[in-house]
Write a structure and sequence with these properties.
The protein is elongated and about 60 Å long. The protein is an alpha+beta fold and 332 residues long. The protein has helices at 23-33, 62-69, 101-119, 138-141, 147-152, 157-174, 189-199, 267-286, 304-312; strands at residues 20-22, 38-46, 49-57, 79-85, 88-94, 124-130, 205-211, 214-218, 242-246, 256-260, 293-297, 327-328. Residues 1-17, 169-182 and 315-332 have low confidence and may be disordered. The strands form two sheets. A seven-stranded mixed β-sheet has the order 6-5-4-2-3-1-12. A five-stranded mixed β-sheet has the order 8-7-9-10-11. It has nine helices and twelve strands. The chain is 32% helix and 21% strand. A hairpin with a 2-residue loop joins strand 7 (205-211) and strand 8. Helix 6 packs across helix 8 (267-286).
Length: 332
């Protein structure tokens, strides 16, 4: 289905809060947006880096484009497809239901970063999330405007301004050029007090959400429920998005940032939380809270096993010792 379907996620070794773009992909993006005969690009995430898969020839009708992408849709391996038809661009996220939870999370978390990478070169008119080959309808993809455009029309002026500020802050944060870590939506007094307690070690779990035109505090215990074996979903809202900060109390334990996005949440709430996420992360960094890992998904995806693994794993770079690909780091 087109638009904001929130699915859960993968984080290879460590899921950092930014992604690189390989030089090969960057070159092909520039070529495609510069008018070259490119009908689409398949994009993978490897070692926190967007890398080029297949390059598709230009076509004139949706049926030919669908025929070209169908062989690329692996039932167990996610990818992104940047597709072009009659001078318009669309982004399709292929995240099959049979993919692993961690893979789902990685591609869910990377979608906004890929949008920003493309935004520096061109404009996306359409977007979709496909979880099965029956959903991979290219004609429908190019027939309907993005859900974001429709939802923006319903937002207040303040909400739209806050979204633009949040996006700008996120782009600056990713390129290391943040001049201010202020939030377009300020913290409520209760959220600020709880965040101060988190900074000082007075609590190891904090839930925040976009509440009206502020970032508010959600009720939660001060410690994650992991010690008891209960899933984090037991303390997360089941019908609205939120952000969660959590860590083990042990010295040097990684700080985990979660964006929980129930699939049934209102589109407006999804959009606000997804767009403000980068600004929230930048604000946390400005307060000296360095997030080492970031996950995104539905509450049910954030299992006890996954979080225990991520909280206890050492913070490290790309796995394996293989030579890293050439990367353009400043785009995202």
């Amino acid at each position: 289905t087109a638009g904001g379907r929130c699915r859960g996620a993968r984080v290879p070794q460590m899921h950092s809060t930014s992604f690189g773009v390989s030089d090969k992909l960057q070159s092909e993006l520039q070529r495609a947006c510069g008018g070259a005969a490119v009908g689409g690009l398949q994009i993978h995430i490897r070692n926190e880096t967007f890398e080029l898969g297949e390059t598709l020839p230009t076509v004139s009708v949706p049926a030919l484009l669908k025929a070209a992408i169908t062989p690329l849709l692996d039932e167990r391996a996610p990818c992104y497809l940047l597709l072009s038809l009659q001078s318009e661009w669309a982004l399709a996220s292929w995240v099959p239901d049979a993919a692993g939870v961690r893979d789902k999370m990685l591609y869910s978390s990377g979608r906004e970063a890929l949008r920003k990478a493309f935004a520096s070169l061109g404009s996306l008119s359409y977007e979709a999330h496909w979880a099965g080959k029956g959903e991979a309808d290219v004609e429908a993809l190019f027939a309907a405007p993005t859900e974001e455009k429709a939802t923006l029309a319903l937002m207040t002026g303040t909400e739209r301004m806050a979204l633009e500020d949040a996006k700008a802050t996120a782009v600056e944060a990713a390129s290391g050029k943040v001049s201010s870590a202020s939030l377009a939506f300020p913290l409520t007094a209760a959220a600020a007090t709880a965040l101060t307690a988190f900074e000082s070690g007075g609590r190891d779990l904090l839930l925040l959400h976009v509440d009206g035109e502020t970032i508010g505090l959600l009720d939660s215990p001060s410690l994650p429920p992991l010690a008891s074996g209960a899933p984090l979903s037991s303390v997360l809202p089941s019908a609205e998005p939120c952000y969660a900060l959590l860590r083990h109390s042990s010295e040097g334990a990684p700080l985990l940032f979660l964006y929980s996005c129930p699939e049934g949440a209102a589109v407006r709430a999804k959009m606000l939380h997804a767009s403000c996420k980068g600004a929230v992360l930048a604000s946390l960094s400005g307060r000296g809270l360095e997030v080492s890992k970031s996950l995104e998904g539905e509450p049910s995806d954030l299992t006890h096993e996954l979080l225990s693994s991520e909280l206890s794993a050492p913070v490290s770079g790309a796995a394996g010792g293989a030579e890293a690909p050439a990367v353009t780091p400043s785009l995202i």
